[in-house]
What we know:
The protein has 293 residues and is an all-alpha fold. Helix content is 78%, strand content 0%. It is globular and about 60 Å long. This is DMT family transporter. The chain crosses the membrane at residues 35-57, 69-91, 120-137, 143-161, 173-192, 198-219, 231-251, 257-276.
Amino acid sequence: MQRNLMLGLGLLLLGNVFTALYDVSIKWLPAQSDAAMFLLLRQVTAILMMLPLWFYAGRPRTAFLKLHMIRANSGAVGGLLLILGLLSLPLATVSSLFYSAPLMIIVMGMLFLKERHSGHQILATVLGFIGILVILRPSEMNLAALAVLVSAIVFAANQLMLRWLPSSEAASVTVICYNLLSLPLVLLFVAWQGFVGFSWSVLGIALLSNSFLLAYQLFSVLAYRKAQAGQIAVAEYSGLLFCVLFGWLWFDEWLDPMGWLGAGLIVLPTLILPSLSRRWRKFRGLEVVREQT
């Protein structure tokens, strides 16, 4: 069990490097880019990129088409909202909002999957959410920020639904279904905008960002099959640090003192509290032994 937990955490940490790179790539879109067209190009290229892996796996099928349909279409809506947020807000603000998803994953896991969590897991998650509020500063909320928050809720629900898929189902099937089954809905989004926004530069960025997103999706599928959602969801917070780093490297963005305080509340409890909890249990065990002797 401990090995699966560590493996799940490691896979999710690696995946979050790629999801941060995905956020960065959207910031490279030309001005006045159409979010729906970008989403369509991203999903079509995702399917094309995954087909070789699907053929290599022996063209596996799925017995959970309804679940994939729900994940795909809700994910398309969430993806569109996130793109709109990234086009309108600073990278750090979007990342701060989006990383409320781990808290939602833990709460949803308790409500719908009957997962049980230790006290330090719940405390770390609550402190992380407080850190997000510190970074966000609720007075700065606007429609774009609300769109990102809704996207985070959708993301959390989709991650949790992965627990209902058997570990025997090929990851390539999960990723292809996620992009393929929502194409009719995305085409409606593009048609609503008048099929505008295509350019070769947008296509190139779609290919680049898609490679990052697919890498994250594959690592995420594998991670959430190795451990309970609540046990590894806090590792999603690591993506915030990667976003801060990449924002500094490529956009000359940096967190102010309040931002660093919020980031500390998000990350440090996940690193420190488990160790403190183990030491406390060990100390209590020694106390019990002393009392008995």
